[in-house]
Amino acid sequence: MKHVVDGKLYTMKDAPATTLEERIQRLEDIEAIKSIMYNYTRCTDNLDAEGIAAMFTETGTFCSPALGNPTGRKAIAELYSKLLPGTKSSTHLIANQQIWFKTNDNAVMHCYLHAWQTFEDYPKKPDCFTYGRYEVEVVREGDGEWRVQNFKIVMAGQLGGGKCCDHFARPWPPAPDQES
Predict the structure, then answer these.
(1) Is 51 helix (H, G, I), strand (E, B) or coil?
(2) Could you read off the pLDDT of 40-67 as tens digits, one per residue?
(3) Architecture of domain 19-159
């Protein structure tokens, strides 16, 4: 990730990866972390609450100003089991993924989202277009898999949903476990 200090752009210092093996492992970790968000978008669009919950650690937290802060896979699955029914079709797109390694087993990912949803009771409930970003803290667990510890949706705006402007005054680097 990049950040600005005294008007100049700098690369944020990641946890060290100096040997060739460590550098290759970092590249593999980056791809594994990105794939978590690909899984999230696919499961969301397939209305798969259990698949979404599976990407979290046992103590993982989902945070959305509009939806609350459920903690743990079971609570997150219950939230999505309530959110997804009634959705007729959806498409979630992510872009501009940036990953910063706090340690070799803990990283923060920042990416942008554009989502569209249409609902079973359209036009009574209008289509919803969402713009914003995800701030996601991931950890490598004992089995070697990366999973989400903290997941925050930060809304820039919604058409058909009414949510906007969560993104102002957010800390940098992203801190997904802190409220703005």
Answers:
(1) helix
(2) 999 999 999 999 999 999 999 998 877 7
(3) Roll (3.10)
